[in-house]
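Dear Dr. L.,

I hope this message finds you well. Following up on our conversation about the binding site, I have prepared a predicted three-dimensional model of the protein together with pyridoxal-5'-phosphate. For your records, I am including the exact sequence and ligand specification that went into the calculation, followed by the structure tokens. Please feel free to forward this to your student if that is useful.
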Amino acid sequence: MSTGKLTINLDAVANNWRALNAKSHITVQTGAVVKADGYGLGAARVARALTTAGVRKFFVAFTEEGVALRDALGPTPEIFVFSGHMSGDTDMIADMALTPMVNSLNQLTRHLEALPDHPFGVQLDTGMNRLGMEPTEWLAVQQIVMQAGPQLVMSHLACADEPDHPMNQQQLTRFHELTDGLQVPRSLAATGGILLGPDFHFDLTRPGIGLYGGLPFEAAEPTVRLELPVIQIRDLEPGESVGYGNTWIAERLTRLATVSAGYADGLFRVLGENVNVYCGADKCPVVGRVSMDALTVDITDISETPRTLDIICEHQKVDALAGLAGTIGYEVLTSLGNRYNRRYSGRS
Ligand SMILES: *Cc1c(COP(=O)(O)O)cnc(C)c1O
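The resulting structure of the complex is given below.
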């Protein structure tokens, strides 16, 4: 086996959902966001495990993702689509029983004309200025919408990962102003919003990253391990160079391992400057440039000859790796390449 082995722990995903579910009152439902192929971990497998754990409402970004999820889950769970009712999507929305979150007057008109009896929800913009109806648009169509009977009204927080950011309270206040008194289920919180406390929970929460073990859910169980097979080991004399551009030069007699994953597998090139891999608990520095399919590692200081080295493991979690690349756990997970040999542990 020459490609990296990516082990995805479905029990950890389910446990993370249970832990987030336990943070809100029993009357609040906890959904699950499985967009971008379940944050890179495989939407079908993740969503089936979450269904077993008790999830009844799923969220995806695009209609096509909803179609694939419906195929994986069968008819029962509700599947909401954040991008709403796009031109050309009507048949998929109808045939696959998807619930578009309409984002604009344009989408609202399209939905009510094309599928007047089909479930829908509304996304409101409370300040993020990314998706959702503006407050003035909402006030103009609120009566029409409420007559049609939406499944859900939602908005999304821009700064929920910073608990003290004043934007959280501003968006909460605006969401209340736009929705108080309406007979419709409401949703405001993703992972960060759940952690902000009960004022943010409303009727339904929409965690994504916390399920997959990422910040801001610090108490999350890690869900992935990435082991990279060693392809080759060689000994270098002092003064010999390693990799493209000769960026690293051995200063001593060096044992060098070449392992099988590179930037084409989501191990960003920028990582080459400061990342380690692990042999058990022993740290070994990556040296030289990350190339497309390989990393080179200084293993001089470990006593054994490793067959594999770990780059995501208990000693270097997803967010630690992300920090070294100047990014966030979300991007590391969704960049995990499709060349890995993927193994699922736990329930399916
Ligand atoms: C991605 C997304 C979520 C999930 O956010 P996390 O931070 O991953 O929990 C929830 N709602 C919307 C609208 C999103 O785009």
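In brief: The first strand starts at residue 5 and ends at 9.

With kind regards,
A. P.
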